[in-house]
Amino acid sequence: MNDELKKYLFADRSTRVQTVYVEEAWKTGMEHQDLPVAVRTLLGELTAAAILLASNLKFDGSLVLQVQGDGPVALLVVECTDELNIRATASLREDAVITDQATMQDLINQTGQGRFIVVLDPSAHNPHMQPYQGIVPLTGESIAQALEDYMLHSEQLDTRIWLNASDHRLVGLLLQKLPGQGGTPAEANVEQSWERAQHLAATIQPEELRDLHPQTLIHRLFWEEELLELEGLSIQWHCPCSREKVANMLHMLGKAEVEDILRERDVVEISCNFCGKPYQFDPVDCASLFIDNPDSLQSGDNTLH
């Protein structure tokens, strides 16, 4: 099955329905990130949620979701562009002890200091748009509940979200009530449709969300409804790190510092701070960095791992 986001509309335009299904992109993204089961699950749910929301962006740019707090997990962060390119990572506190059954509140919000952050970041092609950042307390017992609260109170959008994540797969379902004309008979019908959509979707079982093909799931939930199906959107993992960028960073560190690292370790090993992908530079690789400018002594701020 392709990694895909699907959109549907109730025939009366009252409700937006979306599904997300990701396998290959998630495997790619987690290949170099060794995370505890509970953290990977939570990060996966946040990633699925970011895809569902980013698919409705009205500008070129990206949506960033961050969850941070005072538990053993310091930070979860996911970025999804308007083209549904994703990347995601988690930062754990040193010596963190995390059980497989740990909840979101256990991991991040142990003393109530957790925060949920939404960033809308326009691309350079939108010079007149400024980034937006919304910060709210981390509420609820799950990523889905936290997002529902945020969408209702910060965006004034009635939203229901169901999420499931494992080592191999991310899935999600979103319902969203679309704005109508208040006080009209048509609005009353829209409200009835929205209530019916919520009632039908609430019958979903966790194993159905996890295991069913999204089209099968939609048919099972809404088989009596007239839905307009929109073209699916593909999803890809994309982290902009590259060997060339790492080489440029080492060049900025300077020849003397790179040689000091080689004397200690025989090889320079660097992992991307975001996706964890490792890069290695042996003495020959490092020497080639300074052939054109052997006296380079510039320093940089990058951290080596």
- Count the beta strands: 14
Structural class: alpha+beta
Distance between the termini: 36 Å
Rg from alpha-carbon coordinates: 23 Å
Summarize the amount of helix as a percent range: 25-40%
Order of helices and strands: EEHHEEEHEEHEEHHHEEEHHEEH
Strand content: 25-35%
Low-confidence stretches: 294-305
Major β-sheet profile: 6 strands, antiparallel
Roughly what is the average pLDDT, rounded to an integer? 88
Q: Please, how many helices? A: 10
Oligomer: single chain
Envelope shape: elongated
Topology, element by element:
Elements: E1 4-10, E2 15-22, H1 24-30, H2 37-54, E3 61-68, E4 73-81, E5 85-92, H3 104-108, E6 115-122, E7 132-137, H4 143-154, E8 159-165, E9 170-177, H5 185-201, H6 206-211, H7 214-222, E10 227-229, E11 233-234, E12 236-237, H8 243-253, H9 255-265, E13 268-271, E14 278-281, H10 283-289
Parallel strand pairs: 5-12
Antiparallel strand pairs: 1-2, 1-10, 1-11, 2-9, 3-4, 3-6, 4-5, 6-7, 8-9, 13-14
Helix pairs in contact: 9-10
